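Colleagues,

For the teaching module next term, I've prepared a clean inverse folding example: a structure given as tokens, and then the sequence designed for it. I'd like students to try predicting residues themselves before seeing the answer, so please don't circulate the second half yet.
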């Protein structure tokens, strides 16, 4: 029998860094405090030592070559899947980089979120939407390269064509369609305008690291133009950085108002507004079934601690907070660490926020059978805020 080689525990213990990245793929809230994670009693953990023993035996004695990186990735994935939590998951290096880029405030691309070959989300007013791409479309080829078997190549093929127009072929309802799409620097987070009767409108599509500055600048511009009331549109916003929700709420709240609470298995901690800046004008917030996590925090905070009114549809209902473990190979493990509570003390997980005024989108069909979307939700928000 071949003798096992000695196995050094230190060689497989990687100091992991917990950082702050949200998963736009699965509607995430991520705590943004950075710290090193250590586990006391690691050397005495019998279960961990059994894992290390098995790992050592496979590496040293398996009859064929073993890809250690892939094996460890599979082990991590297995641990996360065991927890049975939809928000606890594993991100490849490419998925992590895409997520970080989207949350930076702008990125080179066409304004989509995708999973494998399938487009999951199309950003409003982005190149993909302008070209006609839709959620549910599946990539066939990008810039002449077939990606049906190699979806990991999609990002590089798009980004390599910065400031150019590329041909993208997709499958849609068993039909292949071709679109010419411009690749450019796509801003994320905020669009705004002043509507009639001094009503401001701000659309937030993601809680990026630059969001609070963008919202602050938008508010100042709108206020200089005479804004007296405000609509904040959080529809289709799947979340982002927790800190961005907190600091954006602080732009509106009086100092000392409760923003939210975090509750883990050991303690509950309250977070209050510490900023001197605040507003007093009426606010209506638009939400729908895709408004999630950080978007729900801002909506709940402004409703409970400011008096804002919610219009639209019941929100997604994500009341959990994730932290991330960034691994040495660039991949990332994301796990649920706490639940957040709105200022009333309620956890909205799996329940969502119920609007004060329900409203759904409506559709009109012309004589050619073509449908046009009527934004009845925005119209309802305008009706409500005019009366405030």
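(Answer key — instructors only)
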């Amino acid at each position: 029998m071949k003798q096992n080689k000695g196995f050094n525990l230190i060689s497989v213990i990687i100091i992991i860094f917990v950082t702050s990245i949200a998963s736009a793929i699965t509607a995430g809230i991520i705590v943004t405090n950075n710290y090193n994670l250590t586990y006391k009693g690691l050397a005495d953990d019998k279960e961990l030592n059994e894992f290390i023993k098995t790992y050592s035996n496979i590496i040293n004695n398996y009859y064929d070559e073993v890809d250690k990186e892939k094996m460890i990735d599979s082990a991590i994935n297995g641990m996360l899947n065991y927890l049975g939590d939809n928000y606890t998951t594993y991100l490849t290096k490419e998925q992590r980089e895409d997520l970080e880029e989207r949350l930076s405030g702008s990125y080179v691309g066409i304004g989509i979120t995708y999973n494998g070959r399938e487009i999951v989300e199309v950003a409003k007013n982005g190149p993909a939407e302008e070209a006609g791409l839709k959620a549910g479309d599946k990539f066939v080829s990008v810039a002449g390269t077939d990606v049906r078997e190699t979806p990991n190549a999609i990002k590089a093929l798009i980004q390599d064509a910065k400031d150019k127009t590329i041909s993208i072929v997709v499958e849609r309802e068993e039909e292949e369609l071709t679109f010419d799409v411009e690749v450019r620097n796509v801003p994320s987070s905020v669009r705004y305008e002043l509507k009639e009767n001094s009503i401001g409108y701000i659309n937030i599509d993601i809680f990026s690291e630059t969001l609070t500055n963008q919202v602050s600048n938008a508010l100042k511009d709108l206020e200089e133009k005479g804004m007296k009331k405000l609509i904040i549109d959080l529809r289709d916003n799947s979340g982002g950085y927790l800190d961005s929700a907190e600091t954006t709420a602080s732009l509106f709240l009086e100092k000392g108002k409760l923003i939210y609470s975090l509750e883990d298995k050991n303690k509950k901690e309250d977070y209050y507004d510490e900023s001197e800046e605040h507003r007093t004008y009426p606010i209506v917030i638009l939400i729908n079934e895709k408004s999630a996590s950080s978007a729900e925090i801002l909506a709940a905070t402004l409703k409970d601690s400011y008096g804002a009114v919610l219009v639209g549809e019941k929100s997604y209902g994500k009341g959990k907070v994730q932290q991330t473990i960034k691994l040495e190979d660039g991949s990332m493990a994301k796990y649920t660490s706490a639940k957040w509570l709105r200022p009333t003390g309620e956890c909205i997980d799996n329940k969502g926020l119920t609007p004060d005024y329900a409203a759904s989108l409506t559709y009109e069909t012309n004589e050619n059978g073509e449908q046009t979307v009527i934004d009845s939700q925005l119209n309802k928000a305008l009706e409500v805020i005019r009366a405030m």
